[in-house]
Input
Amino acid sequence: MLRLFKAEVIKNSHTAAAKTVVFMPVLVVLLSVFLAREYFMVDVLNWWYIALLPGVLAVIGSGVCRKEKKTENRNILTLPVDVKKVWDAKVLCAVRLLVFSGIVMTGLAMLMRNIVKYGMHVEYVLDIDNKTLITAMVILTITFLWQIPFCMLLDQLVGTLFMIVIHMLLYVVSASILSLEPYFMIFPGAIPARLMCVVLKVLPNGLLAKEGMATFALELLDERMVGAGILSALFWFIFLWFLSRKIYERRVFGK
Output
């Protein structure tokens, strides 16, 4: 299993997926610096988990399966290993890329927070300290895990273009609308945005989570939802992982 994982890491080390996990955090940080200024700490994170991170995971999901797709998974049959372990190695490789993107994003946001605040003398509308920023990125990493097996499987079933369209559409609807509902936990795409209401005090629409703001409700700040949301997200990740590996095995063997 470890050798399969290392092989996947090497295989994907210079791909578009590996470059995307660095390029996209740099892009969102720079856009926030030049377009947001006093809203930098609000927008840099909100834009990341509402729009850019799901896009990054779509690229990762497609990238880790690209070579096998070109041969319609026939090359997998030549390996003297369980096909499910091959899928597991791909999932873990994608998880590694997700974690790395979170580290890059956290480091850049912390760096630019100080540059904008002290170097440009900008007074933030909402100043998010480093501890809260790190907490938010850890929670986002955990609550986005489910998208890895989901995107990988969807890419296998309908192709990259349709996977990106379906994935982004479902996520945007879930994050912007369903995350505000009491039953948000049954929709994995709604969980990250809802938990950020509690952690960052920022609504999915980018407004501050306080009285008078559109879509604000006091229950959105319920801290009990953080633990429940994380557990729900982990359930979806495990469920989709095992479901996807079973379907992948059937596709490889043509069952």
Remarks:
- Residues 83-119 form the longest helix (37 residues).
- The mean pLDDT is 90.
- The CA atoms of residues 67 and 73 lie 8 Å apart.
- The radius of gyration is 19 Å.
